[in-house]
Amino acid sequence: MQSSAHRPSSERAETEAESPEQGSLVSDSRLVEETRQGNRAAFGVLVQRYERRLIRVILRFINDLDLAEDLAQETFLRVYERLSQFDPSRRFSPWLFRIGVNLTLDYHRRKKKRIWTSLFTDRSPDRWIEPAVADPRIEQDLRQEVRLVVDQLPDKYRTVLVLRDMENFSTSEIAAILDRKEATIRWRLAEARTRFQELWEKQKR
């Protein structure tokens, strides 16, 4: 499956109902409905809208850009194939990210690997570790230490930690992505932060 961005310009001109700028004004639900009616260009707009963030989320779990892009493409393929199962009364993006996160976690289980990329590529207001370091080599070492600690967390805690504290999804969005109640997500997040802190302090002794 190819997004509209990868098709020849002549083909895009013939098949796309809207330009990317126009597509940005169209709701997800309308694009989903148009895709169901056979408008592939509408799905191309959805891909353009979410592809970069989906890859970024997957990169929180996979230390390989090529693999992350492959998993993102597989996610969009599965979403396209399962659109008939999507409940239009719900939001599209949590459903998309649920498929992507589950696909990524399944990859880990199959390969029995726990590989993490750099967790703090963006400066975020929700960062729960904000070390003041001037030497980039020190910061790189710190990130490596953080990866090693986070890698010790069980998947259910690690996932909510990544989605909330590193990707800034809201609690309600995470609940939709993981198909859990918000209260469960809040509890897991608190537990994940506590476990991280304990492991971090233990490592520093």
UniProtKB/TrEMBL annotation:
The keyword Transcription regulation applies. Coiled coil: none annotated. Belongs to the sigma-70 factor family. ECF subfamily. Residues 144-195 form the RNA polymerase sigma factor 70 region 4 type domain. It holds the Pfam family Sigma70_r4_2. Residues 46-113 form the RNA polymerase sigma-70 region domain. GO terms for biological process: DNA-templated transcription initiation. Residues 1-30 are annotated as: Disordered. GO terms for molecular function: DNA binding; sigma factor activity. This is RNA polymerase sigma factor. It comes from Planctomicrobium piriforme. Keywords: DNA-binding, Sigma factor, Transcription, Transcription regulation. InterPro entries: RNA_pol_sigma-70-like (IPR039425), RNA_pol_sigma-70_dom (IPR014284), RNA_pol_sigma70_ECF_CS (IPR000838), RNA_pol_sigma70_r2 (IPR007627), RNA_pol_sigma70_r4_t2 (IPR013249), RNA_pol_sigma_r2 (IPR013325), RNA_pol_sigma_r3/r4-like (IPR013324), WH-like_DNA-bd_sf (IPR036388).
